[in-house]
Each structure stands twice: as C-alpha cells, then as structure tokens.
Design a protein that fits this description.
Elements lengths: L2 E5 L3 H12 L5 E5 L15 H4 L4 H4 L4 H6 L2 E4 L6 E3 L4 E4 L2 E4 L2 E4 L3 E3 L13 E3 L3 H7 L8 E5 L3 H12 L3 E6 L11 H13 L3 E4 L3 E7 L2 E7 L4 E3 L2 E4 L3 E3 L2 H6 L7 E2 L11 E3 L4 E5 L2 E3 L4 H15 L11 E6 L2 E7 L6 E7 L2 E8 L2 E8 L2 H13 L5 H5 L11
Parallel strand pairs: 1-2, 1-7, 2-3, 7-19, 9-16, 10-11, 10-16, 11-12, 18-20
Antiparallel strand pairs: 4-5, 5-6, 8-17, 13-14, 14-15, 20-21, 22-23, 23-26, 24-25, 25-26
Helix pairs in contact: 1-9
Bound molecules: flavin-adenine dinucleotide.
Flavin-adenine dinucleotide (FAD) binds next to α1, α8, α9 and β22.
Protein name: FAD-dependent oxidoreductase
GO molecular function, one term: oxidoreductase activity, acting on NAD(P)H
Pfam families: Pyr_redox_2, Reductase_C
Length: 401
C-alpha cells in the first residue's frame, strides 16, 4: 500500500487521513476537496457561527499547516474529473493520480427549492457550507422577516438563530408536524412550544406554494394555506442528497447513497466510502446516517480496514442540536420504536424510545446526565424498566451496574 486518495475534504475525509497517519501509514496520502478551505465542522454553521459567536478559525478541524506537517497533500478547490477503477487512477485536471485505496467521503448536498416556485431568487438560502452561511449572514438581521422552510433540525436551528438575532420568523413544515422524520411527537411538541414561546410562528401541515420576487430578489411568499406575507430572507432546510458524482465515475454500487459493507468497503474492494454519502448495514436494514459521530467513526474504521485491520464498523449513534438555551442530546437510533417514555424532571427532560422491552434511543433536553446514562445503557445493550425511567425522582445510575 503506497498511495491512498481521499475524495471529499470534510469531516469524514479529515478523520480518515488523520487516522491513517495515527495508525502508522507512511505512504502518500492525497486529500481532495472542492471547497476552497480546509476541512471544518458544519454543526456550528446553523448555531454559534451563524449567531456570530464563533470565529472562523475555530471552525477548522485542524490548522491548514497540520496537513503539510503530516505529509498529507491537500488539493483544495479541486473537483475530480475522472476515476478509472480498473487502472486505479483519479484524474484531477492535468494530473492522473494512482491509488491503491480510494476513499469516497463526498458528503451531501442540500435539496433546494425548485426554481419554478422562485427557489433561484436572491435571498433564498440553504445551510451546508461556510460559503452558504457567509452569504446569508448579512440578511440575518434585526427587524427583517425570515421564512424558514422545513421543520427538521437544520430549519429549527436556523429559526432559533434568526429569532435570537431579532428577526420576525415564520417556519413552515409541509408534513403534519415538525421533526416528523427524526423524532417522536413528544419531542416535536417540546420544540414547537419552545419556538412559539420565543415568538416564532410555527405552521405545520403548511407548505410553500411559491416565492414572490422583485428584480431577482425574494420579497415574499404565498403559503399553501393561502396566506401571503412579505419576507426578506428564505432558508430551506428540506433534506439532503448524498453526493454520488465520484462514486458513479468509479462505477460502484449505489443503494440509498454509496453502498458499503460493515468494513466501509464498496462493491469495488479498493474503494471505500464514509460519512453522509455512504449507506451501511445496521440491524438488518441499510441506513445512511447524517451525523458527525458517523462521519468520524466510519471514516476511522475505513482507515483501519485499508491498513488490513479487518474491523466491523458498528455505529453507536449520537447527535445534538442547540436551540435558544436548550441543548438536545440524542443517543441511539429510534427507528422501529413503539413507545416513548417521558421522564419529566422539569427543566431537565428526556424521552426514551423502546421497541417492546428494548431501549433504542434517548432524546435528552438540558439533561446531560440522562443522555450519558441512556447512551451507556444503549451501548451496553441494557434496557431498564420503563417505570423506573418514567419516575423523575428515580436514580438512574444504578441501572448501569
Ligand atoms: P461533509 O462534511 O459535507 O464533507 C464532504 C466534503 O466533500 C465537502 O467539502 C464537499 O464539498 C466535498 N465534495 C463533494 N463532492 C466532491 C467532489 N466530487 N470532489 C471533491 N470534493 C467533493 N451533525 C451532528 O452530529 N450534530 C449536529 O448538530 C449537526 N449539525 C449540522 C448543522 C449543519 C448546518 C449541517 C450542514 C450539518 C450538521 N450536521 C450535524 C451533520 C454533519 O455536519 C455531517 O453529517 C457531517 O459533516 C458529514 O461529514 P462528511 O465528511 O460525510 O460530509
């Protein structure tokens, strides 16, 4: 093994190259990214960075110099032109780079509002890259009116930031409730109330009919309930699509993203995938995880497997979201739950997802202890009696024994 190429200089790509070096790989590593900046964290983009509370330098996963110091060639602002999987080469402009192992860590692209309803107007934004956030930031300003389309975590975080910055905020969610894809009604109820208490207009079962523009810039919107309002800024948080361009060039199998096995390997034994772009087997189904935990852990497993360690990647999902003064921490994956046990400790609250007697996941709101204990229980495969969980006075720590 002499040459390893990683395409995608984001969370997974950066984690993979760092792990390769940490595991003692001494050959050539090339990290190719189409953004002009070194790998950075995306979560603060819809939180502290958009709020203006985090400096740009703190977003970077490592200082740019680190890559050179560790013999990692960074090719930024570069898009791959071709991949020849038989010859094991990647073409980048005039360069044809050989590889022994190739890692696809290309992340995902946000869905955009269609152009035929005004999605291409100025003032209509998505939140994925540093460039996206820098472009919208001046319009996230006191006294202006924001329409947030989509009631998932990105939309809710954007609404919280816009509100904190003094905007008049409306959030529309076309399906019957916010967080419908990712959380139980109990968690949705909690965040709906939180946003309403902060003055956000949350409309569920209401979509965007079309945007109105003047001189190419959005000035308002007509909603599917017939309401028409002026808006200065529109932010769409309506889901993501895995970036599959390089995977298609390489001809590897796709199935809800780039299909990998439990080692992170694709249908081509020399090509691996990790992060948002990759799907993997989990509890008898194929899933794609859109989180920092998955990007790091899967990429590190890939690095080890490239070096012959033969390790299965078993996701231990965790996630977080910051909205106003609430920190939501999620452990586990709630897919397949049939009941939710609410542990209502007042300011500290947690929602525990069960399938039958099996604990699957926990949503903890301002309850780091509930989160940590829930996470450890899930990782240990332990399922506490729901009656104990439901009693906010009960001590959870003994459950870990
Ligand atoms: P990315 O970090 O997106 O990196 C992929 C990189 O590959 C990008 O730079 C992309 O431009 C590049 N690329 C794509 N195609 C090519 C190509 N053909 N050639 C070269 N380069 C290419 N997760 C959490 O766990 N908690 C959170 O609170 C949270 N908040 C988030 C908030 C926001 C606003 C966003 C956008 C995401 C958030 N996430 C959060 C999700 C998390 O950031 C992603 O799951 C994670 O970044 C995925 O890492 P990745 O390396 O797969 O993709």
């Amino acid at each position: 093994m002499e040459n390893i190429i990683v395409i995608g200089a984001g969370q997974a790509g950066a984690s993979c190259v760092a792990k390769l070096r940490a595991e003692g790989f001494e050959g050539k590593i090339t990290l190719i990214g189409d953004e002009p900046v070194p790998p950075y964290q995306r979560p603060p983009l819809s939180k502290a960075y958009l709020l203006g509370e985090m400096a740009l330098e703190r977003l970077y996963l490592r200082p740019e110099a680190w890559y050179g110091e560790n013999g990692i060639e960074l090719r930024l602002g570069s898009t791959v032109d071709a991949i020849d999987a038989a010859a094991k080469t990647v073409t980048l402009g005039d360069d044809v780079l050989p590889y022994d192992a190739l890692v696809l860590a290309t992340g995902s692209t946000p869905r955009r509002l269609p152009a035929n309803i005004g999605g291409d107007l100025g003032g209509v934004h998505v939140v994925r890259t540093l460039a996206d956030v820098d472009a919208m930031e001046p319009a996230v300003a006191e006294g202006l009116r924001a329409l947030i389309v989509g009631g998932g975590y990105i939309g809710l975080e954007a609404a919280a930031v816009a509100r904190k910055r003094g905007m008049d905020v409306t959030l529309v969610e076309a399906t019957p409730r916010i967080l419908g894809r990712v959380a139980a009604p109990e968690t949705a109820d909690y965040f709906r109330e939180l946003h309403r208490a902060q003055g956000v207009r949350v409309l569920e079962g209401v979509g965007l009919d079309c945007l109105n523009g003047v001189d190419g810039h959005v000035v308002g919107a007509i909603l599917t309930n017939g309401e028409e309002h002026p808006y200065d800024l529109v932010i769409a948080g309506i889901g993501i699509i895995p970036n599959d361009g390089p995977a298609k060039m390489a001809g590897v199998e796709m199935d809800n993203g780039i299909a990998t096995d439990s080692k992170g390997r694709t249908s081509d034994p020399n090509i691996y995938a990790a992060g948002d772009c990759a799907s993997l087997p989990f509890r008898g189904q194929r899933i794609r995880l859109e989180s920092v935990q998955n990007a790091i852990d899967q990429a590190e497993a890939v690095a080890k497997n490239i070096l012959g360690r033969d390790e299965d990647y078993v996701p231990q999902p965790w996630f977080w979201s910051d909205q106003y003064d609430v920190k939501l921490q999620i452990a586990g994956l709630n897919t397949g739950y049939d009941k939710v046990i609410v542990r209502d400790g007042g300011a500290m609250r947690s929602h525990w997802y069960y399938a039958g007697d099996t604990l699957l996941a926990v949503d903890a709101m301002n309850d780091p202890r509930g989160y940590m204990i829930g996470k450890r229980l899930i990782e240990a495969g332990k399922s506490p009696d729901p009656a104990v969980i439901a009693d906010p006075e009960s001590d959870l720590k003994p459950l870990l024994k």
